[in-house]
Every structure is written in C-alpha cells, then in structure tokens.
Design a protein that fits this description.
This is Septum formation-related domain-containing protein. By secondary structure, this protein is an alpha+beta fold. The protein has seven helices and 13 strands.
C-alpha cells in the first residue's frame, strides 16, 4: 500500500503576502465609518498648539475577531467586531502604531505603504507577535496565514497609522474566507472534506476543484490523527493506521468492495510531517486515485458516478467473487 501513497506532502502554503495585501488594499479603497473619524480629527481649534492624536479606524485589539462584507467589485464594507466563535474573516494578534516606527517613513504626509512594503512590515512586526499569540504553534503550510490590516485611505490621510496584525484563512485564489473559533484552538491542517476533489499541479501544489474538472484524487474522508496518537507519529505509524482507515473509508464512500473494484481506483492518503504536527496540524486526508506516469492519472467526474481516467472510461474488469461487500455506513 505504501506505493499507493504519494510521498510528496500536500501541505502547501497559500500566498499569504498576496492575501494580506489584497485585504489591506480593500480597506484602503473603502470606508466603514471613516467620515465620522475624519470629522473628529479635523475639528481641532486652529489656535491650539496641542497635537491631536488621530482617531483610529477601529478600537479592536488582540484576541478580537473582525468581519466585513465584500461587494461585487471586491470592496470591503460593514467592518465590524464579532465574537470569535462566530464566522469571521480576521483574528487580531497585535495592534501596532506605525507612527512610532523608528524613522520618519510613516510621518504625517507619508503615503500608505505599497504591497511590497506591507509584506515587509508583516515580517518585521506581525510574524513573531502572531506566533507568540498562538502559543508558539503556527504551521506556515497550514490553513492560516499571517496578515495585516491598514486604515482606509481617508483615515490614513487624516493621520491614523494603526496596523492590525493577525491570522486569516484564504482560498486557492488568495481570497479571504470565513472561519470560526479561536485559531489557537483549531486544527491548522490544510485538508479537504469528503467528496471534494484535489488537483495537483506541476509544482506539487494542491488545489480544490470541482469534481467535473480534471483532478488527481477524490477525498473520501478527513482523519484527525490526534484522536489516535498522543505524540508526533512517524510516517510509518501514520501509514499503518491510515492503510486500514482509508480502505474502510473508500469502501464506505463507494458503497462496497464491488464498486471499488470495478472503478479501478486505488486507495490513497496524505501524511503529516513532524514539524507541521508540532505546529498544530494533525489531520490527514483519505482519497481515491489512479496511478499514472507522473504519480497520478487525470480523473474527471466523481468516482461515485461516471468518470474518466486520462480521458477514457475505467477499463472493464472481469467479474469475480466479492471478497468483502459490507453495507455502506452513513
């Protein structure tokens, strides 16, 4: 069975820098209560020599979660703070004031940092703060990416230099997705759900696709190995457990041994590297695939219906006496 398991690990990082940059760009281009903030800032008496501290675009701080709506043209609106148990788009790990940055880079008349500088600021100011906030457990190849939010354009122009650091989840295209629960308490594994299909590209990156599109394998189960092991399991330990667990999942998914046999598909599973386990990722995927020249043949269509293998229907297999044909579990 080991030959059926792809040795290339499927935990790949979504481009966190681009995702975070897109978020900040969205906030720079929209307003969420910003006119009120700007009015407060510009109402200081001209005769006063006291420097008025700009009003921040948000009072949210570490441990709080944020959400917003996204318009059809990609702009963020209705920026609000919500309980982290609810669906949210961002969890704050730290709150930074760029006005105190040790240079005049972010002075009163300075423009907002561009995408490249934002990525540098995330590395300089957000990365370690966020890892500490997560209790030292952060898997850079997992479901969370470290990101940051800058003030909307009007607030920045009025002097607000607040930068929020935190974590978010994104899809393959870098679009921010919703999540629920505190990140520190979540399994960070980047895994798919039963019935989803995964395409593996030439760089061994994995992407969720519609099962009607070309793909590499179809997921039959998600297995949390933390329910099995109280220590970081070796690859051999994972293989020993997942061989049986994923075979059972395949039989259940296909409706018995005969449908699996005639599909010509083989059982497949992913494994978790020790570094990812120690960083908070403990789940693996079971799936169905067909061996091909580069490891995976190209499947199209769901294994539970009509599908092709490298453009052709599954080859016909001879009738045989079923070895096992348990009823499907639900």
């Amino acid at each position: 069975m080991n030959a059926l398991r792809n040795s290339t690990l499927l935990h790949t990082a979504i481009i966190a820098a681009l995702a975070g940059g897109a978020l900040m760009g969205g906030y720079e281009a929209t307003q969420s209560g910003d006119e009120e903030h700007s009015a407060e800032i510009t109402s200081a008496a001209p005769a006063s020599t006291t420097k008025v501290k700009p009003v921040s675009f948000t009072a949210a701080g570490p441990g709080q979660c944020l959400t917003w709506d996204v318009t059809e043209d990609g702009k963020a609106t209705n920026f609000t703070t919500v309980d982290c148990a609810e669906n949210h788009r961002f969890e704050i790990s730290s709150r930074e004031d760029l006005a105190t940055y040790p240079s005049s880079e972010f002075g009163a008349d300075a423009p907002a940092p561009d995408i490249t500088r934002q990525a540098q600021l995330r590395e300089e100011l957000c990365k370690q703060q966020t890892i500490t906030y997560l209790g030292g457990k952060y898997d850079p190849t997992g479901v969370y990416s470290i990101a940051s939010i800058l003030p909307p354009a009007d607030n920045w122009a009025a002097g607000d230099r607040t930068m929020l650091c935190g974590v978010q989840t994104t899809d393959d295209a870098g679009n921010i997705t919703v999540s629920s629960g505190k990140a520190q308490n979540q399994d960070q594994s980047r895994v798919a759900e039963r019935g989803e299909c995964i395409a593996i590209d030439s760089a061994n990156g994995s992407h969720k696709v519609d099962c009607g599109e070309p793909h590499s394998y179809e997921v039959t189960a998600k297995v949390n190995l933390a329910d099995v092991f109280d220590h970081p399991p070796t690859t051999e330990e994972q293989d020993a457990h997942l061989k049986d667990a994923c075979t059972k999942a395949a039989l259940d998914y296909m409706g018995g041994d005969d449908p699996l046999y005639f599909s010509t598909l083989a059982v497949y599973w992913t494994t978790i590297p020790t570094a990812s386990w120690n960083a908070g990722s403990t789940s693996a995927n079971c799936g169905l695939f067909h061996p091909g020249a580069n490891g995976f043949a190209t499947l199209q269509g769901s294994a539970t219906g009509e599908f092709t293998i490298d453009g052709h229907p599954p080859e016909q297999r001879p009738e045989r006496r079923p070895l096992r044909n348990p009823p499907a579990e639900h």
